[in-house]
Amino acid sequence: MVLESTIVCVDNSEWMRNGDFPPSRLDAQQDAANLLATIKLQSNPENTVGVLTTAGTSSRILITSTQDSGKILTCLRSVSPAGTADIVAAMQKAQLALKHRQNQAQRQRIVLFVGSPIAAEEAVLVSLGKKLKKNAVAVDVINFGESVENEAKLNAFMNAVNADENSHLLSVASGTAILADAIMPSPIVSDSGGGGGSGGGGGGGGGGEEFPFGVDPAVDPELAMVLRLSMEEDEARRAAAAAAESGGASGSGDSAAGAADTPGGGSTGAAASALDGAATSGAVAGADEAGSAGDDAELYDSGDTEMDVDAEGGEGGDDDDGNDTEDAEADMLVQALAASNEEAQQGNGEEEDMDEDLRRAIELSKKDYDGSGAGSEEAGGSGGAGDKPDGSAGDA
Questions:
Q1: Considering 30, 33, 220, 327, which has the largest number of Cβ atoms within 10 A of its Cβ?
Q2: Quick check: 107 and 138 in contact, CB under 8 A?
Q3: 297 near 305, Cβ under 8 Å?
Q4: 180 contact partners, CB below 8 Å, separation of at least 6
Q5: What is the DSSP letter of 211?
């Protein structure tokens, strides 16, 4: 919400005693002014509101810019009808009070209640309006009670003071039940719609407008502000989602166009990747099998290994090679039998050599034995003859 400093100018002339706005114009004006002050303070925590009277001996500032709604209500209830209103002097004092506001960042605004005939000339009002416009002061005018008589002068004043539709004029015809109800839907409260125009009788300038989000900002301004912020966040989120979807759609469109330019490209790439994976897995499996076969081959000699290899080759061969395999096996069997016969013959030759040597050894031992036996017999014969005790040998 806009950061503002507002001065509410209340008409407390004798015309406020009229009862066309029950219970009286003054009471209806007080309720409307209190409503406006409350809305201004709730719209922004740093907003300030002051109150000034336009009639009496002279226009008088009841309270300077404040954020205390209780003080504003108290000073409004203390206003009593007296004298004739001087809106020119009242707006000049209001402009001076806004000039010396504490927070210079606040925008300046005057809310003027006019419930009695305007005595000032139209040219004076136009000159005042230009001065206020030059000093960046916005003016909202609520014309009630004598709306028809004051409408021409106020329209000229609004044309002079209005800048970028920052000022509004609301004319409320006599007979309206509650003045505050006529103000509620107007741009003065909702700050929506154009200014410088005059509303029709009974409803005012914005009587037919609906409240945004279905919530009256004057009744619950905090809820209205929360709903507005939530709506803005939702719109931003939807815009971001739409942008993301449009980006994704363009990316997928490019991919589809690339696939269309190269027919079969997607399937070819998938097949190539599948073949690469199969080749890799086959190479790994072959390496594992070769390693295991190498380990097993170390347990056998070369001859057995060749036989196993030939046998595996025969088993794994095709049907056309069956005869060749059988012939090879037969040849291998013949070779094995021949090798065994040679070993057997070599063994028999060695046994014959051994028998011959044994035979020779036996013969030599027999010869030695025969020679030694004869010698012993000769020695025994000679010795026995000479040693006979009875002398028999001597006899022979």
A1: 33
A2: yes
A3: yes
A4: 28, 31, 32, 35
A5: P
- Alpha carbon distance 355, 333 (integer Å): 33
DSSP conformational letter for 168: E
Among residues 191, 178, 177, 185, the alpha carbon closest in space to that of 219 is found at 185
Q: In the predicted model, what is the mean pLDDT of residues 356-381?
A: 64
C-alpha distances (whole Å) from 273 to each of 84, 262, 276, 279, 286 are 98, 17, 5, 10, 20
Q: What is the signed CA dihedral for 66, 70, 71, 76, rounded to 10 degrees?
A: 110
What does the DSSP assignment read for 17-47?
A: G--SSSS-HHHHHHHHHHHHHHHHHHH-TT-
Q: Give the pLDDT mean for 208-225.
A: 64
Cβ atoms < 10 Å from Cβ of 129: 21
**Residues 110/147, Cβ–Cβ less than 8 Å:** no
pLDDT of residue 393: 41
Cis amide leading into 23 (omega within 30): yes
The whole-angstrom separation of Cα 184 and Cα 207 is 8
H or E stretch at 233: helix 221-261
Which tokens go with 234?
């939702």
What is the average pLDDT across 205-215?
Answer: 51
For 145, what's the count of Cα atoms within 13 Å in the CB-facing half-sphere?
A: 25
Taking the C-alpha atoms of residue 334 and residue 314, their distance in angstroms, rounded to an integer, is 18
Cα gap 134→112, rounded to integer Å? 18
pLDDT tops 80 at residue 154:
yes
Distance from the first to the final alpha carbon of the chain: 180
DSSP label at residue 204: B
- Give Cα 322 distance to the centre of its chain: 71
Handedness of CA 29, 33, 34, 39 (dihedral sign): positive
Place of tokens 């509303």: 199
54 neighbors 38 (Cβ within 8 angstroms): no
Predicted pLDDT at 204 = 38
Q: How high is the pLDDT of residue 354?
A: 63
Q: Provide CB contacts within 8 A for 385, sequence distance 6+.
A: 393, 396
pLDDT for residue 282 is more than 50:
no
Q: Which residue has the higher pLDDT, 386 or 44?
A: 44
Task: Give Cα 256 to chain centroid, integer Å.
Answer: 27
As a whole number of angstroms, the distance between CA 310 and CA 300 comes to 14
pLDDT score, position 249: 66
